[in-house]
Amino acid sequence: MLVHVLRRLGGAAAVLWAAFTVSYLILYLLPSDPVAIMLDQGAGGERVDPVRVAELRARHGFDQGPVQQYLTLLGRTLTGDLGTSISSGAPVAGLIADAFPETAKLAGLALVLGLAGGVGIATLASWTRATWLRDLLLALPPLGVAVPGFWVGLVLLHLFSFTWFLFPAVGNEGFASLVLPAVTLAVGLSAVVAQVLSQGLREAWRAPYVETVFAKGAGRGRVLGAHVARNGSLPTVTVLGVLVGNLLGGTVVVETVFSRQGFGRLVENAVTTQDIPVVQGLVVVAAAVFVGTSLLVDLVHPLLDPRVLTGARPAGPGPGGA
Question: Which of 81, 84, 139, 218 is 20 to 30 A from 132, alpha carbon to alpha carbon?
Fold first, then answer.
């Protein structure tokens, strides 16, 4: 188990380093000058003072060579210093900390709704003996994956905000403003969960130990709850880290559609003004959330299925026992 933990920690550190390095290469080596662009936007067509440009370039480290600039930024990032916003002059870490709570609430509610919907669809499809109902339920996940998230958000806005006036269309005021954005995010998440879980449950139902458990007198409900669900859900647990990481990226589009303050608005403003320190800070934080969630899943997985550590396959009724 210790070797497994150390290997995963090393992999997580490597992914974070790669995310930082790639974002630096893409953002800081662009041919444009973010300081000049920012000053041009605020000058209203007037001539920009070259001395002012040089001063700001030196303040933000753009006057250094690529290697020195990279090492300086990497060293600061390792200490938690993500730099200073070019457009506002505020610490990037503070901007992200201010935006994170609203995005976290949205992602958390979307995760709850997505898991509830995905698990419900997959479980009912696995449980029912009605072929038409099972086929109908199994047709929903591919549809949910194929539908663009922004389109779902616009449809929900049209129906529940502009037609029936049940939920606010924009803003961050109260729980009601969270519902439509969270449902928009949850549609794609629940589709993936339902697709992976239903496949896992189908394979678990076909396992030899299921017949053994039935032969011992267990009912269909006990077999599903104590054996099939436990073994069939392991692939879903594996991809859960990826899904949670993708939620953070999905909030950027959803928060823009619903005009919510959060990561989405921060990303939009940073990209528009080419505020490179903010963009890279958001990339690093998003990568850290993704890696942290995946690492947590990797560490929990062996507790649910010890065979992960040994590579062994079940010979009997699996982790659920008989």
Answer: 218
**Looking at the predicted structure, is the pLDDT value of residue 34 above 50?**
yes
Task: State which H helix or E strand residue 50 sits in.
Answer: helix 50-59
Phi, psi of 23 (to 5 degrees): -65, -35
What residue type is assigned to position 181 of the chain?
Answer: P
Domains detected in the chain: 2-78 (no CATH), 92-310 (1.10.3720.10)
The 3-state DSSP class for residue 274 equals coil
Cβ partners under 8 Å of residue 167, min gap 6: 160, 161, 176, 177, 179, 180
Return the pLDDT at 318: 40
- 13 vs 179, 238, 245, 284, CA distance in Å? 35, 19, 16, 12
Mean pLDDT on 62-69 = 85
Residues, the chain: 322
* Helix 149-156 vs helix 176-205: crossing angle, to nearest 10: 130
- In angstroms, the CA 125 to CA 224 distance is 12
More confident residue, 308 or 179: 179
CA distance 269 to 276: 11
The dihedral built from the CA positions of residue 249, 253, 254 and 255, taken in this order, carries a sign that is positive
Task: Copy the structure tokens of residue 145.
Answer: 């994956």
Tally of CA atoms within 13 A in the half-sphere of 67 that contains its CB: 0
Distance CA 108, CA 186 (A): 10
Q: How far is CA 216 from CA 81, 245, 257, 268, in A?
A: 61, 42, 55, 60
Biggest distance spanned by C-alpha atoms of the chain: 86
- C-alpha closest to that of 312 among 320, 321, 302, 297: 302
* Burial class of 312 by CB neighbour count within 10 A (0 to 12, 13 to 18, 19+): exposed
CB 274, CB 34: distance < 8 Å: yes
